[in-house]
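USER: Write out one fold?

ASSISTANT:
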Amino acid sequence: MILRRLYIYLVSIAALVVLAFGLALLGQTLLQLAFNTGDNLFNRSALAGYTAAVVVSLPVWAIHMWFGGRFARRDPAERASAIRRLYLYLACAASSIGAAVALAGTVAGATQQQLDGALFEQVAIAQVAWVTIVLAAIWALHYRIAARDRAAVGEVGAAATLRRWYMYIALFVGLFMMLAGAQGLIWLAWLRGLHSELANYHTLSAPAGQLAGGFLLWAFHARVLVTRFANDDRRSELRAVEGFIAVAACIAAALISASQILYYSAAHILGVANPGGAGSDLLAAFAQPASTMVVYGAAWLLIRRRLARDAGAGEGARQAAMRRFYTNLAALVSMAALAIGAIGVLGTLLIQLEAQVIGVTAPDWKDPFSLWVTLLIVGGAVWLAHWRQVPWLEERLAISRRIYLWAALLGSVLGILGGGIALLYVVLQQAFSLRPRLDDPTNLGFAQSLAVIMVAAAVGLYHWRTLRSDSASRHAVPVPPEAAPPVTAPATADEPVPATEEASGLHYSLSVVGATEDDVHQALANLPPQASYHLKASDQPA
């Protein structure tokens, strides 16, 4: 049975690939002949090859799909098989993404005359539009077959996982196509509004097409997920993975752009003529980072709202693990940026001070200081947004948090080691010299090495104390002893039997709305060690 399925759907996918390429290239060649463009001899030779590919692959694909459909109608297990769903969703994923990319090219070609003043190339536009039609038809056919199978036998286990892989990959690709197109439109509109020469080297139609194709791909799959699979997918690991990867990418893009804006601004205030090679036109330099920050920052906030809503409805164990992994990874990367920025700022200041003490010419400090202070501010902001020094107990026990703490401690110790070696090298270099000089410019390395040691020591001390606090909280968890079985005397008929007491002390009932599970645990983290509570999520008011 499995071998038969493998044969049918392997042949089907191979024939479908040949058929798709053959139809796309055959249509493009016919359009070239219809518009009398290109070498007719070459076009006729290519026409023969593409026609042969279509004529052979079409019946092979159709016959095997007919047999697959016939077996599926007879046997529900055949219709629900993971191999059949793998074929259907693989075809849906490839054709939907390909159709979105082809649609982007079609829209770009159709609008380039109005937006960029370029020539209207009828043949090229018609060829890309034909590819869009072919891929959209393949997607529609396979999506309809998958929907009929799902309605007939349902979708659980591996079949549901394959559907999620297809939908969340398409959703992710569509989202970032849309964001890249929107950012490109805002950037070029900004440059054209300033009449900057940089706008002459880019077209407005390309990001417009990217925005259109990405929006259709993202909007369709987002709508289907919300209306048909919201309850099934809310606790899915793939949904959490897609969301956290998207958030991480948006955070990285937005914060890098914000750091560029801050760097250009600080350098301009300090009088740097050409910060980072951006030139003297500060408004034109702001165009790309500002457009990126606006677009990806808005996407960051919206996706975080979706993730918070999913967590508020109940978070599975794997979803929680993915959230912790993302949070601690963001904290680790931002802590590295924060430490590097602090080393740069402190090192720049100490170098200026040491240069005055030993009597050498100090290097320029304005441009590097602008860069390091930007890294310090942005890294610190991200770290504060993701790091919690005293979370609730389950978060403290998470392996991702311990990896973060040990990695930060390891990095700080290695920093102290490297800084100490460099500092001692500067001292011993003069001590072992035949003519030691205090005013040697190489002695400025002492200040930079001292900055590395100071920052690394501060980072290491903080994370070492946090690690000890987490370890103490793990050991302080009370383990209730096993209670001995109660021994009671038989009650007489007139004497009521006393109810067994569940636990000593008062019991409190608390109802919380408008908060996530993590928020509730954080709010109750200061309870005394002997206290305990049980959290139960419910859609019904208490």
The radius of gyration is 32 Å. Residues 477-484, 486-503 have pLDDT under 50 and may be disordered. The chain has 16 helices and no strands. Residues 317-358 form the longest helix (42 residues).
